[in-house]
Amino acid sequence: MTLPSHAQIVVIGGGIIGCSTAYHLAKDHKADVVLLEQGQLTSGSTWHAAGLVGQLRSSASITRVLKYSVDLYKRLDAETGLATGWKMTGCLRLATNPDRWTEFRRLATTAGSFGMEMHLLSPAEVKAMWPLMRVDDLVGASWLPTDGQASPSDITQSLARGARMNGAKLIENIRVTGFEMDGERIVKVKTDQGDIACEKVVNCAGQWARQVGAMAGINVPLQPVKHQYIITEKIDGLSSNAPTIRDPDRRTYFKEEVGGLVMGGYEPNPQGWVTGDVPEDWQFRLFDDDFDHFEQHMLQAIERIPALETVGVKQMINGPESFTPDGNFILGRAPECSNMFVGAGFNAFGIASGGGAGWVLAQWVVDGEAPLDLWTVDIRRFSNLHRDREWVRDRTLEAYGKHYTIGFPHEEYASGRPAIVSPLYKRLQEHGAVFGSKLGWERPNWFAPAGTEPADVYSMGRQNWFNEVGKEHALVREKVGIFDQSSFAKYELTGKDAQTALDYICANDIAKPAGRLTYTQLLNTRGGIECDLTVARLAEDKFYIVTGTGFRTHDFAWIREHIGEGLDARLADITEHFGTLSLMGPKARDVLARVTDTDVGNSAFPFGHVREIIIAGATVRALRVTYVGELGWELHIPIAATGAVFDALMQAGADFGIKPVGYRALESLRLEKGYRAWGADITPNDSPFEAGLGWAVKLRKDTEFLGRKASETIQAAPLKKRFAGFTVARDDVVLLGRETILRNGETVGYLTSGGFGYTVGKPIGFGYVRHADGVTDDFLTGGTYELVVANERFPAAIHLEPLYDPHNAKVKV
Ligand SMILES: Cc1cc2nc3c(=O)[nH]c(=O)nc-3n(C[C@H](O)[C@H](O)[C@H](O)COP(=O)(O)OP(=O)(O)OC[C@H]3O[C@@H](n4cnc5c(N)ncnc54)[C@H](O)[C@@H]3O)c2cc1C
């Protein structure tokens, strides 16, 4: 096929992701699509995948994406005439110890929350389903009956045919060699056989996506890793419908294939491939068999399935696959290039994800915004740190090594740390800080008392920091503490049209005089919450915008891409210009008054205001806001002066017992006050009205703003879901999020956040209560609630108001 001179959308890569994206673009959107593949279709990672298809993930949206894959694989052959090899064998996950069993009980609850069938089985039940398996070391197993397996090449060919049937052109043996750019836009895709002009490009180049992206200046942080499995000869007595097995405590997986077994695993010592560019000539190629490295899996697998000791190995597959630093794939519009979209980095679940990933990516390409909350896989979750290939390699190999380890709550990665530290790092270490890392920043999670080791000890129940965090929490509620929040993302928007730009971008009214702050959501066209941040007006033509550490790239990209054409409004990321100290607690004013000459009394410096004040000789932007529900200020300090200001505050607050306080206390404090966290409680799937934040949407003003139309529609109809708080009377219940909410015994939703409130002395959860006919106050308060936690039901109380109100200094439970 010859290369057309123009296409609306060019998809690069003919693996499962490229073919699925092309299929959905052509079929669902009637787009004019050309797919370019440097070799033959499937010749990258796709042809040698093992073909296990699992669906349950910890994100509801990603689980939905994976469920869609299964639905598609079931019906695709009828549509295209090409079979996908889909077999709904179900999947068994084996547990050999109590912590793993707790993990599965929590997973079973998550499955229930997301509407997936999952059962917990006894060893005897497992034996009956899989007679060749040794089960004497099992505590039990989880059983997902709708999981299965498929043939990766067949699905891809079927998708390719479906794409062609709907008018897409798929061209093989043509290599993309570069892009012709107009600023940050691609205008032409260059190939070894000529150029093709286009409007949009979708980079589905698998492990090459990094180098293909680099040609347009974008960063796709992935790392190719060698992944091996074996295929055995026939095993007597093995059913062709045997469920797939995941045996995480032995780090192995199994799948039936033509009477034999496919067996592979995730070793703790993975072998990364190149950190530089991947060779171009890697069609249908594998690495040499590495039985020495694979032996660790073989030994474990024989223990599980003794027949493996004697059966012959037909073939070993040792192929590269792209993995990412957090084990999630990479989707969406690249922040550095306005018309390149990416679908790559599939962490050995590209076959399971392929159908659904192509569906949502196609929609994203056409609309320019994600069709649902895809934050966990969004390319904008990365930052410049992820341009460091060695850092990406180290973190990715750590994530690969953890693929099958028990996922303890609050677990932190260890590699590539410290990467970015605040000026207070050493000082906080001296206070016993136990750090976590967020987008590369070291941030104190909690402070270990003198004489104890400053380290987390992970467990499924209460962890070693529980009591210390309680003390930090109490200090903020009763006196005063300092949070180092220097990692906050900070932007400045300047120019004579800055207000006009923000009028359109922000749901709340930011058109206030200089010196005022506005808490606002930024909405998408569906009225869903894309960002949640604070806007401070510093001058007529200057706004200071502060958002969460992890949302730095995302929020910046969102704001920038929605600044109206031709407006005089320039957005700059100035995160590293300012350190941030949040001085919080009833004594915060007393402390602040001791270090500045500015009047910080309530009438001179009311809530929701910003002032420049001098502390320790530095000009500090003081924002009177709180995320903990106490009197307080966020102090934004020229970065070099952060240490001096911290020292001054610590000295001034000494007689109140002031101390630095960590992020785990912050979480507990904000839960009691009912403050929503973006990415968990409020996401692009949720509107401010459903989230109880309708008061922050300026519908009463005439101003046109992004998401207005959808907001009007949502507001006018009965809400089908509403955000509410829950407490559990038993104080040893560990809430983590995703626990099921039962109303009068029926599932009505699941928790989006969970934790412990030390002032109220109870576990606290937040989540949406759903009801198709509308959720009124009466509906909310008229039911009896339970939470399902690790598969056990606990009576719960619902709360429509914050659990703690500092003005009444009263606990409302
Ligand atoms: C050993 C092994 C076992 C696996 N088992 C499973 C499993 O059981 N279940 C599961 O879900 N997943 C599994 N996977 C993962 C799965 O194979 C991948 O996630 C999936 O194939 C990725 O598909 P892709 O389309 O992103 O990449 P690819 O299949 O690699 O496709 C990318 C394509 O882009 C093309 N390309 C690159 N550069 C250019 C260019 N410049 N111009 C034109 N074309 C270009 C390449 O030639 C390639 O064909 C496994 C992977 C391995 C290695």
UniProtKB/TrEMBL annotation:
Keyword Transmembrane part of the UniProt annotation: no
FAD dependent oxidoreductase domain boundaries: 9-364
Domain of life: Bacteria
Matches recorded under InterPro entries: FAD-dep_OxRdtase, FAD/NAD-bd_sf, FAO_M, GcvT/YgfZ/DmdA, GcvT/YgfZ_C, GcvT_C, GCVT_N, TrmE/GcvT-like
Domain Aminomethyltransferase C-terminal positions: 721-805
Domain GCVT N-terminal: 424-701
Gene Ontology MF: a single term: oxidoreductase activity
FAD dependent oxidoreductase central domain span: 367-420
Annotated keywords: Oxidoreductase
UniProt record similarity statement: Belongs to the GcvT family.
The name this protein goes by in its record: FAD-dependent oxidoreductase
